[in-house]
Amino acid sequence: MPVFEQLQQRRLQLGKTLQNLADVSGMNVPQVSNVLSGKLDSRLSTYEALAGAMDASLVLIPKHLLPEVARLLSGKAIGPDDVPSTVDRLLGGLN
């Protein structure tokens, strides 16, 4: 998924308006709209500013690590499916 789509998805999840993002990022509303719709090919610093306005960070992940990162983000442990995740093991130790 392109960066602009991820930022747009994050905006919708947070319920932020274009005006909210414009105020925090220092951009104007039409520019924010154009960036988030993919109509404007922006600099990395523009994407970083919008991500920061939504309490997020851009991360560059080498392609060969994408499967591991996707699995980690899904909450699954790396390795066999029947092994509890680190979070499950830590929370299980608290009971």
Would you kindly provide a written description of the structure presented here, covering whatever features stand out?
- With 95 residues, the protein is mainly α.
- It has two domains: 3-53, 434 Repressor (Amino-terminal Domain); 63-92, no CATH class.
- The protein contains six helices and no strands.
- It is elongated and about 50 Å long.
- The model has no long low-confidence stretch (mean pLDDT 86).
Set down the secondary structure blueprint:
Blueprint: H1 3-14, H2 18-25, H3 29-37, H4 44-53, H5 66-73, H6 86-92
Helix pairs in contact: 2-3, 2-4
Note the gap between the termini: 39 Å
Q: Quick one: overall form?
A: elongated
In this structure, how is the largest beta sheet organized?
A: none
Radius of gyration (CA) equals: 17 Å
Q: How many domains make up the 3D coordinates?
A: 2
Pfam family, one: HTH_3
InterPro entries: Cro/C1-type_HTH, Lambda_DNA-bd_dom_sf
Organism: Duganella vulcania
Protein name: Helix-turn-helix domain-containing protein
